[in-house]
Specification:
single chain; alpha/beta; Spore Coat Polysaccharide Biosynthesis Protein SpsA, Chain A; about 20% strand
Length: about 300
């Protein structure tokens, strides 16, 4: 996993019919690289046909070489696993195909990994809202930002939109993304939750920043609610490991419904604030997603569709 004194690092991204992947690749060419690093980019095209090959291989490779992999079937887990299989490096970072890397992004992840000795390091994702179609509450409330969630002062799961994996750790190296979540989303939550339960430490590098421009198709309260609802369904999948009886299912359902009622009550009490009532409403949607999945509701399909 090393070449001479070089530290090998791979940067992986999965793409599905998005022109923005070119902007992502361009931003990666502007990364600040250490002289001891040997870096390459792996792009997994998740379309049935290799529709992204031309745009990917035509992108700038003046600083970092790019490897194209065709991983069809419109299942994001297949694409992520293709990146894992293609990578032969000690370190593997993931970024999404609609994000832009700050020049110091990779350096910040690596510095945190070395200082903390963590197997997994998460970065932050900030949003870029276009005032032409984004309402002011979206940016004020940070609705499109991504940060790790702490439980009892520990990060117990993660996400693939900004992460660095230490593949020297056998637990990380042997892990894979569950194909059953490859169309609905939540595969990354399941992936990182499993690694945490195996004893992997997850740390946060707050200076490892990626920017995600908010597209017009996402700039709505409905889109945000559907995303929270689907996140709740993923949470229910994780809970299912603990729900071993009908009584347990009833208990978990009661908790989720009670939390949803509190959220909706708080929404009514904060109608004066364009930000807060929306935050409470979205939080309530998450708990409703938990209830839906606990009782066998269909999981929302997130991948394999083109966003307008």
């Amino acid at each position: 996993m090393t070449t001479g004194d070089k530290i090998k690092i791979d940067i992986a991204l999965c793409t599905f019919r998005r022109e923005s992947v070119v902007d992502t690749l361009t931003s990666l060419q502007n990364l600040e690289l250490d002289t001891q690093w040997q870096v390459k980019i792996i792009v997994a095209d998740n379309d049935v046909e290799p529709s992204a090959e031309l745009r990917v291989m035509s992108a700038d490779q003046s600083k970092i070489p790019v490897i194209y992999v065709h991983a069809p079937q419109s299942n994001i887990s297949i694409a992520r696993n293709a990146c894992l299989s293609e990578s032969d490096s000690q370190w593997l970072a993931f970024i999404d195909d609609d994000e832009l890397a700050d020049p110091g992004w990779l350096r910040a992840l690596m510095q945190k990994a070395f200082s903390s000795k963590a197997s997994i390091v998460l970065g932050s994702v900030d949003s870029k809202c276009d005032p032409e179609f984004c309402e002011s509450w979206m940016e004020k409330g940070g609705f499109f930002k991504t940060r790790p969630v702490y439980v009892n002062k520990k990060i117990v799961t993660g996400y693939t939109c900004n992460v660095l994996l230490d593949r020297r750790d056998k637990r990380v190296r042997d892990a894979g993304f569950d194909l059953s979540h490859g169309k609905t989303g939540g595969e990354d939550t399941v992936f990182f939750s499993a690694l945490y339960k195996q004893g992997c430490t997850i740390e946060y590098a707050e200076n490892a920043v990626l920017i995600e421009p908010v597209t017009e198709s996402r700039a709505s309260l409905k889109w945000l609610w559907m995303r929270r609802y689907r996140s709740g369904q993923t949470h229910a999948v994780l809970l299912s490991g603990k729900v071993i009886s009908f009584k347990d299912k009833i208990t978990q359902t009661a908790f989720a419904l009670a939390k949803s009622l509190v959220c909706h009550a708080m929404m009514l009490l904060t109608l004066w604030s364009p930000v807060y009532w929306r935050k409470w409403w979205l939080r309530g949607g998450l708990h409703l997603g938990v209830v839906s999945k606990l009782w066998g509701g269909d999981t929302l399909v997130q991948y394999g569709k083109v966003e307008n």
